[in-house]
Design a protein that fits this description.
heterodimer; A: mainly alpha; two-stranded antiparallel sheet; 26 helices; about 70% helix; globular; B: mainly alpha; about 80% helix
Chain lengths: ~675, ~500
């Protein structure tokens, strides 16, 4: 049978679970979570079946029009199917874990309903075959994140964090929507006449856009893609809209895991990957993507160094790793469609190890009852499974490995394989072939790798080794929590090593297949890159003389190991005291601990003083006094008119007959006017 | 065409006629309790008739032999017959509970069935005499139905006003039709009259011809409740039993539209520009007055009556444009409006029934205040009312949106930008009084926290209307296609 026909069930099942959980959750109580789990498991199963069916060259395309104004469609290509598999799988594990983690929470029915909807929204983003549907699902993701971050809404900090996340991502969403509007305008003026007018195609469908991309002026494409990227910056927590992500820790830890690994933040990266042909045809856009991504990677990792909240360290690491993904897409300016493969590969690997890290953190918090790393320590003996799985995923996050391959297998953790690819084959190619700002991007990549390794192991050593800094009755978590951990930890270790080249090759076929060959037989992406003013060399980096740049090739590895050694020396062996540099008298430490005074700049200056104090209050004045005044005037005029006109209706039949005579006279007058 | 063919082609009408007579005759020998079965009999006959129409679908049949010049079967007639049958069916189902203890319920169902037959004859009529007879059959039945609550003075008032004004309008119409008959030298078939006038355009442009058109437009204006011929409508809809208001607004008023679609084609031949001018004025007056006065109504039935007037104003824009697209929109609008209005009136009737059951001496059960907190007291009823009202306002994904979209768009394409702007402003205005009801139901606190139990018959009737409203809104293609083939019949 054709499993593609079941594709619509992938997001529909979690939606049904959402409805059922809300409707019957209170009766089912502790079993409420099973509905969502079954639904997402089925979604995962369908995704696997579709993958098996379409691999390696197929796609699934379905589309239904509603008038010509709205199109609902499904488009599954390599890019979408890997996302589908990852999201359904990781979300499934997180849901299973939550059975144990949320078992004591009185709001667990609401929790499982909302996470099911959250997953459904993300699946909707992935499956969308047009940009408008994409945006609708994208907004739904935003709504669900608001609900879940503020899950404990009676806690003021949670309510504030939810609002912050919603408002910050909204800035990006508005940019994204503006991009869609400009794109539609361009499609309407430049493409519609070419395809033969209304009703022939749906202008916002991805395939239609890709097919006629060369008709759109490149300067317009730059504006559109930068606006799209603005949306991605908001959703994926890139500088400067990253401020919501660390605060989003206020939700349950499983929600953080969902946001950071499976849903939400990856949506931004997916958006850029989905519209990659537009980016590569747009001058300057990809360079900006690479620069912002690289800068975010480094910037966030510096703050990760000094955080004491275990989840906050992980939050900054997510921002930093998302920066790598954006950087990976940005270097597509040099390496073409392969960049999508690298970025997505890191995205998938990151999903595994970050989900694992968050769930481990959840397990630790569940056991000790605090988020503060300074109050932990010595937990290794008490929580062996958690400690080991967390070590594995930390190795992946820090990118520990050896740049050697045995056949198709790369030696190294998942994080290493994908990050190495982005830094070397991506950023280094960029540097080597003289892309603008190449050295800066390469520097961002390597420096962030070093810092990542330091803070990752700092976290692990502080939590699991040394002496317990407080007496706590820590205990290992139940099986429903540890089994997902183990699965994810294994994947964090070996997934990257095993699947590297098939994955990259498969993802490349997203934009290199028969459909795109028909549009441009000389290479679709290459052709667009020429339009965008980028130059993709014929020879890829792998054919370069490795010996020539051995030191550079080894830099990521050295960075990872060096970071481990530094952390080991400071936080495990305590060779020198942290307190001597890590205090508020040290200006560098202070600026990091204060997170570059972002709160002061973003909240107090921009938000409160400028946006609220100037813009909002002026707007309010105009709205209340001027606009409302006009509207009120019109409405009281009409309602007053209604009272007058009502009186015509006297209730006396004779008057009705009079009106009739007048009416007949009126018609006679008008009709005879023309004749006479 | 033999008599057997005739019966098979007009099987729905024949079945309804037999059922109507059977209900009346059987009813003579039954007590009040046993008469309840007659309602079911009426419902079954309507269901069978509906199914026949649905399964035969759209086709065009050139009748020969008996009735050849007076009746036709084409997509237009079938589309309207389906609309009338569904409206009557919903009304009958809703009445099952309302009148289950009424000693004259046999007459009630007979009248509904006869009225439906009258409407169906009008839908099929291509002869001015046949059309008029159908009109009168439907009108006489509904006059009686409007006054069915004969102990209720307002019901009697509604019936009398309806009858007087109805008689006046019939006179005007008949007078106008008789002019046509005379001017054409004794023709009654609409097509033949049109052909005759197109060969002799001078006749229709003569003062006598103009007078004929004036009277016909005024006559139809009455039946369609266009301003200033609308004044009977609010009084009648408010005073009649609420389920009958549904039949009047959704059924008998729509009968006028199908007749007007066919007859006014004659006028299109020679004096199209002037007729367009007349309907620009009538449409603007009708929609604006209907919506503005609806704003200040506190009685839901009266509000719905004015909203009905306003909607007739929208539909009558088709006479301005007279393009196939506009006709498609108008035909679809008629069916959509039938569902929305029937649903809304029946929902109001259901609330009235429940309130009266609680308190037998309750007054003004359709007053807006009674809807406060309905969302908590009767969630399904409140939800349905909300959908019907949003559909009337034209909000997607309902039938109201689809038909409004097609109609307005066609008027825009016809070049009457100002008319569309006025129509859209009116639509926006109408949202005020529709949304106000929703606010009452969902935002304001209920006067009593007691749940209201909705009787099954009402639920079923409301559900049917709800399905109709949402089906046209969500899967519009089949309905639009049928409406388009109905519009094609006119050969615009």
């Amino acid at each position: 049978m054709d499993f593609g026909t079941l594709a619509f069930l992938i997001p529909t099942l979690p939606v049904i679970a959402f409805v059922l959980t809300l409707a019957f959750g209170n009766k089912l109580q502790s079993r409420a979570g099973y509905i969502s789990i079954v639904a997402i498991a089925l979604s995962f199963l369908i995704s696997v079946l579709i993958f098996l069916q379409i691999y390696p060259h197929g796609t699934v395309e379905q589309s239904a029009h509603w008038f010509s104004v709205l199109n609902v469609g499904i488009f599954i290509d390599p890019l979408a199917i890997v996302m589908l598999l990852m999201v359904t799988f990781v979300s499934l594990l997180i849901h299973i874990y939550a059975l144990g983690y949320m078992s004591h929470d009185p709001g667990k029915t609401r929790y499982f309903a909302e996470t099911a909807l959250f997953t459904a929204a993300m699946l909707g983003v992935i499956l969308a075959d047009n940009i408008l549907q994409f945006f609708i699902a994208w907004e739904l993701v935003g709504l669900c994140s608001y609900l879940l971050i503020g899950f404990w809404f009676r806690k003021p900090s949670a309510a504030a964090a939810a609002k912050k996340a919603f408002l910050t991502t909204r800035v990006g969403d508005v940019l994204f929507l503006a991009g869609i509007v400009i794109l539609y305008f361009n499609m309407y003026t430049h493409v519609l006449p070419e395809v033969g007018g209304h009703g022939t195609v749906y202008l916002l469908q991805f395939k239609t856009i890709f097919e006629h991309l060369t008709l759109i002026p490149t300067d317009q494409l730059t504006i559109i893609t930068l606006l799209f990227f603005g949306g991605a910056v908001g959703k994926s927590g890139q500088f400067p809209l990253h401020v919501w992500l660390p605060d989003a820790m206020e939700g349950p830890t499983t929600v953080s895991a969902l946001i950071h690994a499976a849903t939400m933040v990856t949506a931004g990266v997916y958006l850029v990957a989905r519209t990659f042909p537009m980016f590569i045809a747009a001058p300057e856009s990809l360079i900006i993507v690479a620069l912002i991504g690289g800068f975010t990677a480094l910037f966030a990792s510096t703050m990760g160094l000094v955080m004491n909240d275990i989840k906050r360290v992980l939050a900054f690491s997510t921002i930093s790793q998302l920066g790598y993904m954006m950087m990976g897409l940005g270097v597509g300016a040099i390496i073409g469609a392969e960049a999508v493969g690298f970025a997505m590969f890191h995205l998938i690997n990151h999903a595994f190890f970050k989900a694992c890290l968050f769930l481990c953190a959840g397990s630790v918090i569940h056991a000790v009852g605090t988020n503060d790393l300074r109050e932990m320590g010595g937990l290794f003996g008490k929580m062996k499974i958690t400690a080991t799985t967390m070590l594995f995923s930390s190795l992946a996050l820090a990118g520990i490995g050896i740049p050697v391959s045995i056949g198709a297998i790369k030696l190294g953790t998942s994080g290493f394989v994908s990050k190495d690819a982005i830094i070397l084959e991506g950023a280094y190619s960029y540097l080597h072939f003289g892309g603008a700002y190449g050295s800066l991007i390469f520097f961002f990549g390597v420096a962030a790798a070093l810092l990542t390794s330091i803070y990752t192991f700092r976290l692990w050593f502080m939590a699991f080794t040394g002496k317990p800094r407080q007496e706590r009755h820590a205990h290992e978590s139940p099986l429903s929590m540890t089994v997902p951990l183990m699965i994810l930890a294994v994947l964090a270790l070996v997934f990257g090593a095993l699947t590297f080249s098939p994955f990259i090759h498969y993802l490349e076929t997203t934009y290199e297949n028969e459909f795109f060959e028909e549009i441009d037989p000389n290479g679709y992406i290459h052709g667009l890159a020429e339009r965008g003013g980028y130059h993709i060399p014929e020879e890829p980096i792998v054919h370069l003389d490795l010996a020539h740049d051995t030191l550079i090739m080894m830099l990521p590895v050295i960075a990872g190991l060096l970071g481990f050694i530094i952390s080991w020396a400071i936080y495990h062996k305590r060779l020198f005291s942290v307190a001597s540099i890590g205090n508020m008298r040290n200006p560098l430490f202070r600026i990091l601990a204060k997170r570059y005074y972002q709160h002061e700049i973003f909240i107090e200056l921009i938000s409160l003083k400028f946006t609220y104090g100037v813009l909002a209050l002026t707007g309010e004045f105009i709205d209340r006094k001027i606009v409302d005044g006009i509207i009120d005037g019109i409405s009281s005029f009409i309602i007053g008119g209604a009272e007058v006109l009502k009186k015509i209706q006297t209730g006396v039949v004779q008057n009705y007959a009079t009106a009739t005579v007048l009416g007949v006279a009126l018609i006679a007058l008008v009709l005879s006017w023309g004749v006479i | 065409m033999s008599i057997v063919d005739f019966i098979s082609q007009f099987a729905p009408e024949v079945i309804l006629t037999i059922a109507a007579l059977a209900v009346m005759i059987i009813g003579l020998g039954l007590g009040t309790k046993e008469k309840r079965a007659l309602g079911y009999l009426a419902a079954i006959s309507l269901i069978v008739a509906t199914l026949i129409i649905v399964f035969r679908g759209t086709y065009h049949l050139q009748l020969e032999g008996i009735m050849a010049d007076s009746l036709t079967i084409d997509p237009m007639s079938q589309f309207f017959k389906l609309t009338f049958l569904l409206v009557s069916l919903i009304v009958v189902i809703a009445s099952l509970k309302q009148y289950d203890n009424h000693s004259n319920q046999d007459e009630y169902y007979t009248l509904i069935l006869l009225g439906t037959i009258g409407m169906m004859v009008v839908a099929s009529a291509i002869d001015i005499v046949t059309m008029f007879i159908g009109f009168e059959l439907a009108s006489l039945s509904t006059y009686a139905l409007a006054g069915f609550n004969k102990k209720d003075p307002s019901s009697m008032e509604a019936a009398i006003k309806y009858f007087i004004v109805g008689a006046l309008s019939s006179t005007l119409l008949l007078f106008g039709l008789s002019y046509l008959y005379g001017l054409s030298g004794g023709l009654t078939n609409i097509g033949e009259i049109a052909d005759y006038f197109s060969m002799n355009p001078g006749i229709i442009q003569s003062p006598m011809g103009i007078m004929a058109m004036v009277l016909i437009v005024a006559g139809f204006g009455f039946k369609m409740a266009l301003v200033p011929f609308h004044m009977w409508a609010p009084d009648t809809y408010q005073g009649s039993p609420t389920v009958i208001s549904a039949l009047l607004a959704a059924g008998s008023k729509k009968m006028a539209f199908v007749a007007a679609f066919r007859v006014l084609l004659i006028a299109m031949i020679a004096i199209k520009v002037d007729i367009a001018m007349v309907f620009i004025i009538l449409a603007i007056l009708t929609m604006t007055l209907g919506n503005v006065v609806a704003l200040s109504q506190k009685s839901l039935k009266r509000m719905l009556a004015y909203s009905s007037v306003a909607q007739a104003g929208y539909i009558s824009m088709v006479f301005v444009v007279m393009s196939p697209e506009a006709m498609t929109g108008a035909v679809l609008y008629v069916m959509s409006h039938a569902f929305m209005k029937t649903g809304a009136f029946i929902a109001v009737a259901a609330l009235g029934y429940m309130l009266l059951r609680e308190n037998i001496s309750a007054k003004d059960v359709d007053h807006l205040d009674n809807f406060a907190g309905l969302g908590k007291r009767s969630p399904f009823l409140a939800f349905s009312i909300m959908i019907f009202l949003f559909a009337l306002a034209g909000i997607p994904p309902t039938a109201g949106f689809v038909s409004k979209f097609i109609l307005f768009y066609s008027v825009l394409k016809g070049g009457f930008v100002f008319l569309v702007i006025i129509a859209i402003l009116n639509s926006a205005l109408s949202l005020y009084y529709y949304a106000r009801v929703v606010k009452y139901m969902y935002v304001l606190p209920p006067s009593s926290s007691e749940k209201l139990a909705l009787p099954g018959a009402y639920s079923l009737a409301i559900l049917l209307a709800l399905i109709g409203v949402l089906a046209i809104g969500i899967v519009p293609e089949p309905f639009v296609n049928w409406a388009a083939s109905a519009a094609n019949v006119l050969g615009l």
